[in-house]
Structure formats: structure tokens, C-alpha cells
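(Deposited chain)
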Amino acid sequence: AEFIDDELASALAESRAAAGTLLDLARDLAVRLPGTAAALRDGIISRYKAQLIAHATALLDKAESRAAEAAVLDRATRLTPGGLRAAIARAVMEVAPEKAKERREAATREARVERWAEDSGNAALTGRELPPDEVLAADQRIAAWATELRKAGLEGGMDELHARAYLDLLLG
């Protein structure tokens, strides 16, 4: 078991991290989420949707996981990934509000800024695990500045203007 991530990574030509993620999902489906496992096996939901459910229920025990799963599985196939993410988050809050609160508080200690190169040769910059109220305020400030840029005659679509406003505000 010590080297199973390495063995799977080699067999699938994946990274060790990707193999570990796949093994974690397999364990979660086998132990905590039999309904999600059945829906995935039957082609009712995608692996990505199964991962969303598994990730959202990770801190729950078997009974809590199954209760949260049951709250969303009947409509998981019709929901977009974002809709499923929101639905399973609500279900987790209803089933185990204290654990949902603990998860959010623990995640705040993982706040970070990430940057990476895009395939186009450009770059990306994002903030992760930030306080929701501050993110909303920042988004509103970016939107307001993008609107001012449009009024000033800067060309481009609103997505492009939001990106310009984002950089303007960060760079002063």
C-alpha cells in the first residue's frame, strides 16, 4: 500500500498526485458514497461530478456523507457542476453544520495567491480560499472600475475590461 500511488501513476501514465486523487475518489465511493458510486458506474453522473460530491463530503462520517449524497443525487444529472457544487455544499451544511463551519475555517488557513502560465503564453493570477465578503467587495470594485474604463472610451469587451481593471487596481 505504501507505493500504490506510484504503481497506479506508472500504469496510467499520470502524475503521482493525480493517481492519489483517483485512489482517494475510489476509496470514498466504495466506503462513504455508494449512491454516487452507482450513479457514476451507470453513467448517470460524470467522474467530475462524483469528485465534487466526494470533496464536499470529505469531513463527514459515513452516515452524514450518505445523507448529504441522498439530498442531491436525484438531481445531480440535471445540475451543472456549479449547481451541483452549491447543492452539495447546502446539503453538507444541513447535515452537519458544525463540520461545514470547521471546514470553512480550516480552509481560510490555506488562503493563497496562485499564478501560472496559460497555454497561450499569457498568464493567470488568482486568490484562493479568501473571505467571501471581501471577494464580493473586490469583484464589485473591479466591475465599477471596468465600467469607468468603458466610459472613458477604452475598447474591448467587458471581460477584457474587467481583466484590465483587476490589474490596474492591483498595480495601483
About this structure: The mean pLDDT is 95. The CA atoms of residues 111 and 129 lie 5 Å apart. The first strand starts at residue 112 and ends at 117.
